[in-house]
Specification:
501 residues, 10-stranded antiparallel β-sheet, disordered N terminus, 1 helix, mainly beta
Length: 501
Amino acid sequence: MKKLQTINITFLITIVTAIIIFYSCKKNDSIKTIPDPTVTGSVAGLVTDLNNVAIVNASVGAGTSTATTDADGKFSLQNVQLSANNGLVKITKDGYFTGSRTFFVSSGTVNNVKIQLIPKTVSGSFPASSGGNINVSGGGSVNFSPGVVNATSGVAYSGDVLVSTFYLNPSNQNFNQYMPGNLTGVSAANKQGVLQSFGMVLVEMDDASGNRLQLASGKTATITLPIAAALQASAPATISLWYFDDAKSVWKQEGTATKQGNNYVGTVKHFSFWNAGELSQAVNLTATFTLDTSNIAFANKLVTITRSDSTSTNGYTDSAGTISGLVPANEVLALKVFNDCGENVYSQNIGPYSGDTNLGSISVANGSCYSSDTTQYIKMILNGTTYFWPSFKITERFQTGSFSSGYTAMFGGSAQNVSDSSTYFEGIIFGDNTSPGNYPVSIYSIVNGTVVYQAGGQSYDPGYNYPTAAITKYDAIGGYIEGTISGWIKTFPSTPTADSF
């Protein structure tokens, strides 16, 4: 027998995000149909409030699949049928406005999103029969004329109207986390493009019992939107208004607003998110990021694209370290990549681009957030000899399955993570786990392509003598697992025998 002295397990689960940067309008005036096939992909992410505090037990929907956020605000949906170009995740939670994110779906990978939910608080109320003016939380206002409100049934409403509001400042660093969908816009002429936002407002009306109200057919309300200080100089005198179509998860043009001082003022016929913005041309940009010390994919990392007016958008790399999305054409842009500690580990000015561009593979440093020695992801000491396994990833998580309590499977080895790698490690943590604790673990490894080690494996251990791991950090899919385990591990020949521990 060999003594397994220590195994340190630290791995980053690479979560996919096809970064939604900007979306293009057509390069000519003709209307084109963009193929949008349905693909199978997985989605994982994090839901927080505006202070980055995890929101627990929020309902998550993508395609026909649903999930609930865990104690860390995280969720995972596997093998979901989604629109390739318009994948949508929607989040609902009592006390918050509905949140959503739209993204390009990478088939066969896990697409990552982070969504901040906006608290739904009443900004003010007015009698429906007399109208009123409501100040928007964060800036701006909404003015209602008398007799403009209906119940959802279409019947005129005469009681008090409770108005919940929120102003979304496009200069805020978290703007892309709490705005709905992405910045895809469809003009009144049915042209698709990317919006540059000069300000958004969210308005919902309810009665005293929480039943939703809406403007009556043919009636309007007046909205006043502050123009962010950084955008006032470039703000046009007249700008299009866009509402967020929740069913299609795109912004649709409807009406205009005029610049009055440092505000845009316009009228709207219904309420949801409203956006004062301009449509612009764009091209597709692709880039792949890897760690410069090991060529390991820099996965699930924040990437931002910033325009010259300081407005920006962001997303997260997929499991291969890749981003792919649309960026403004014919502009110089600032590309930045961040590690998990928020350090800017890569910066580059890119563009201007007149056509689709692939930047290829880019090496980045991991910064001081983690050890630069990425081989430390897994360390196993056997009789005084230390073995390392990089590229350690979660491959499966089942809440139920062949084991009644569920399990998390993980492995590492070659860059391709194939089972015949010359140095290979596979582990299963048993239990329906998402939090620290002591859990039984099955370990299987190959060293130098010849020596096979096994601890607690069913085929080699009729007694099911699983060793116990002390897990100190156990994130949901998309985070880390850290812990240690020590115990006995058995050496096996290439053809297993019937003997046991």
